[in-house]
Amino acid sequence: MIEIHNLKKSFGNLDVLRKVNFSVAPGEVVAVIGPSGSGKSTMLRSLIHLEEVTGGSIRIQGEALVEDGKYATPAKIKSITSRMGMVFQHFNLFPHLTVQDNLELAPKTVKKENAAEIRRRSEELLAKVGLADKANAYPANLSGGQKQRVAIARALMMKPEILLFDEPTSALDPELTGEVLRVIKQLAEENMTMIIVTHEMNFARDVADRVIFMDNGEIAEEGTPEQIFGNPQLERTKSFLSRVE
Ligand code: ADP
Ligand code: MG
């Protein structure tokens, strides 16, 4: 589903990603953990072309977004990135639009689908995230957990084949993380392919098929949750885990 080969990204002379390699199989859930500044967000943002890498390759379903540092054509980039949805730490909802309009805006403008079909899907997805009664509310009137569930429903409106989450619960009060994590867990059970950057170690242990520990721009260690949490091999993995758990 996703193949990343020797990915490199620098900002000026700061090397943020140094030869990152990994792949994700269809239906797999990969949790990415690691200290602040280790390159987790940059790696995710590169996948949907919010950042341009300085070297290496990204293949999505066998098609190259970038191959040896050379990007595909704009049309190709659009077609590849449209298969992925991303959910951000700070929700990024449109404040002047209702919940329902937040969900329907992109499908209406990008997909040019029939309005009745878009409405059917927005109602179905709001029900799925437990917010059927909030269709006409504005983001300012929602809790953080509700906003993040709207953001997830909005991402699903585009029928993505891959979902990327960048610390989806880090901006939430602790009592609101559960309602968001439950929605993500349900998507995992439905076999959505996902990469989840998270500080929620219990959640990573519970839902991830594989855990990647990033440190200093590289994948320091990866394995099953049992391996990474139960028997980490590297001193820096142990040290990170002892600080967050
Ligand atoms: P993480 O998500 O693991 O905290 P990031 O990917 O956000 O890490 O950042 C990795 C490094 O890249 C950090 O040192 C950060 O300061 C730097 N960085 C991120 N974005 C930019 C940017 N637009 N310009 C310069 N440096 C950046
Ligand atoms: Mg980050």
Protein traits:
binds adenosine-5'-diphosphate; alpha/beta; 11 strands; ATP binding; MetN_ABC_transporter-like; P-loop_NTPase; globular; 9 helices; five-stranded antiparallel beta sheet; six-stranded mixed beta sheet; 245 residues; 39% helix; transport; binds magnesium ion
Brief rundown of the structure:
The chain has 245 residues and is α/β, with parallel strands linked by helices. It is 39% helix and 27% strand. The protein has helices at 40-47, 74-81, 99-111, 115-128, 144-157, 174-189, 201-207, 225-230, 235-244; strands at 2-11, 14-24, 29-33, 55-60, 63-67, 70-71, 84-87, 162-166, 193-197, 210-215, 218-223.
The topology string of helices and strands comes to EEEHEEEHEHHHEHEHEEHH
Task: Report Rg.
Answer: 18 Å
- Model regions low in confidence, pLDDT < 50 over at least 5 residues: none
- Give the helix/strand class: alpha/beta
**How many strands appear in the DSSP assignment?**
11
Strand content: 25-35%
Cα end-to-end separation:
31 Å
Judging from the principal axes of the Cα atoms, what is the shape?
A: globular
Percent helix among the residues? 25-40%
Major β-sheet, in short? 6 strands, mixed
**Ligand roster:** adenosine-5'-diphosphate, magnesium ion
Mean pLDDT: 95
Largest sheet: spatial strand order: 7-8-9-3-10-11
Membrane topology: Peripheral membrane protein
Organism: Paenibacillus sediminis
InterPro entries: AAA+_ATPase, ABC_ATPase_HisP-typ, ABC_transporter-like_ATP-bd, ABC_transporter-like_CS, MetN_ABC_transporter-like, P-loop_NTPase
Pfam families: ABC_tran
